[in-house]
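Bit of a strange request maybe. I'm writing a small parser for structure token strings and I need a real example to test against, not something I typed by hand. Could someone generate the tokens for this chain?
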Amino acid sequence: MTENPITDALVLITGAARGMGELYARRAVAARARAVALWDIDEDAATALAADLSRSGVDVRAYRVDVSRHDEIVSGLQRVRADVGAPDVVINNAGIVRGKAFWDHDPERDIEATMRINTLAAMWLTREVLPDMIADTTRPKRILNIASAAGTLANPNMSVYAASKWAMIGWSESVRLELAAHGHGHVKVTTFCPSYISTGMFAGARGPLLTPIMTPRHATAVAWNGMLRGTPMVLRPWTVKLSMALRGVLPTRAWDVLARQVFKVYSSMDEFTGRS
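Reply from user aminoacidic:
Good idea to test on real output. This should exercise your parser:
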């Protein structure tokens, strides 16, 4: 079995037209993937990126897929299989954020849309690709799930977003354990849990104490390297682990005081505006 998960692989990326999705695509091309499938709801942006990256000689194709719909995931994957084959690497990158008090969320536009795009889409796509990944033992397979530090600690004005990422972390970790338990060690799942990243999605948010806002380039590099190694969970920066540890050992009220008054976690979304 070849040791490099990317060389000569088919890499499928959701939310691939811009931001971190674009950076993952550029890394796949630089690593000499056989083909890269760019999934995005913005077909024009995805097509333009595919044309740019195809100049490298790698077969890069754009697909308009609304990952909030299971039927579009199924039909999109059918098109990818017909064009370039079954994916060897899947990066579940697509996501949205709503930053407001829970009672201000619209049931469909905010709550349902967030859960569909941030959580269900990754589950649906992974469910569709796993049988082929499991059956093909000739090369390593990888699934990279982009979660968030918000899925490890509760935070005001992030209730629905946090719920979507808590669900992704629990599901992602369970799938990783199931694959190992059933002897499918060539398929490895990595869950990436970053704090705030300067992609525009979290415009206005402030990093808590000792927690700098990461650049997209740094965040994608960390997640990518973790995926290559098959690292189960990648948490960045280091304060994410520290906060998880403190929240785990301290009484809830004590943690609330620390998070609110010292680390400023609970006020980090006070000036959130998000991407227009």
